[in-house]
Structure formats: structure tokens, C-alpha cells
Specification:
Number of strands: 10
Bound molecules: zinc ion
Strand order of the largest sheet: 6-7-8-10-9
Low-confidence stretches: none
Distance between the termini: 34 Å
Number of helices: 0
Order of helices and strands: EEEEEEEEEE
Strand content: over 45%
Oligomer: single chain
């Protein structure tokens, strides 16, 4: 049986594979990190740089906040009509001082989540097309 190729649901936002990583950018002047990539004008109000370097972000972080999403989520999470509630976590990347939102990995009970919990980046299927499986990043608790 043919296995469908796995590709990112959004090009250029993250690398998939065994050690997936989000792709962000860093301001060359004030060193502020951005995700998704910012390549226009620095959003730091005290900086007006327009030069950024592309960078892979930390694969681990801590839950800063989370919520149970009981409504149909916006793009890129639109899947089909079989929507089931899931948890969304805002995860703080320590080195980057950056909050990255993401769905919590499949099979994680929202009641088991806690502020400060260590999570790692994983890649899971979002939806399938005829010949591809579109993949999306999620956060998975490390100690559950
Ligand atoms: Zn800047």
C-alpha cells in the first residue's frame, strides 16, 4: 500500500520530521524573536529595524496559559465536520521569550494540563488530501 507523503499544512512555518521545529525570525537589531516569521518591520515599539534572520525556535517550552476550545477553530485548524473539542496552549519559549499558540497533542486530557508544565513540539496530521497528509504542529506535555 502506498503511504501518502507528509507535508506541512502551512509552508515555511515549521519543519516536520523526527525533530520538528517552528521557524521564526529574529530582529538583527534588537534580537526580538517572532513567530510566525516577521520580515517587514520590527514590532518592538522601540525598534524600527527591517532586517531579520530566519531561525529555528526551541522545541520545548512551558505552558503559560491554556484553554479548552469547544468551538470550531479558525484556519489552519479547519478540518471537516467531525470537529471534536481540543485544548489550545500558549507556550512560552524560554530562550526566545516568545509565546507560541498551538493545539495540544491528540489524546491529552485538558484536565491534566497545568500552568508551567513542560511541553515539546510534535507534528500531527491535520487533514488528508488525495495524495498528501497535511501536518500541523502541536504541544505535547513531557511528563504525562
Ligand atoms: Zn527589532
Amino acid at each position: 500500500m502506498l503511504r501518502k507523503a507528509q507535508t506541512p499544512a502551512i509552508d515555511g512555518w515549521y519543519k516536520i520530521g523526527k525533530k520538528p521545529q517552528l521557524i521564526g525570525s529574529q530582529c538583527k537589531k534588537c534580537q526580538t524573536y517572532f513567530f510566525p516569521k516577521n520580515d517587514r518591520e520590527c514590532r518592538n515599539p522601540r525598534c524600527s529595524s527591517t532586517e531579520f534572520s530566519e531561525t529555528s525556535l526551541s522545541r520545548e517550552g512551558r505552558i503559560w496559559s491554556y484553554t479548552n476550545a469547544c468551538y470550531q477553530p479558525p484556519a489552519p485548524y479547519i478540518v471537516d465536520n467531525s470537529f471534536i473539542p481540543f485544548a489550545i496552549a500558549a507556550v512560552e519559549l524560554e530562550v526566545e521569550k516568545l509565546i507560541v499558540l498551538g493545539q495540544v497533542a491528540t489524546g491529552t486530557d485538558v484536565d491534566s494540563l497545568a500552568i508551567g508544565m513542560q511541553v515539546e513540539l510534535v507534528i500531527e496530521p491535520l487533514h488528508e488530501t488525495e495524495d498528501e497528509v497535511k501536518m500541523i504542529w502541536k504541544w505535547r506535555p513531557k511528563d504525562l
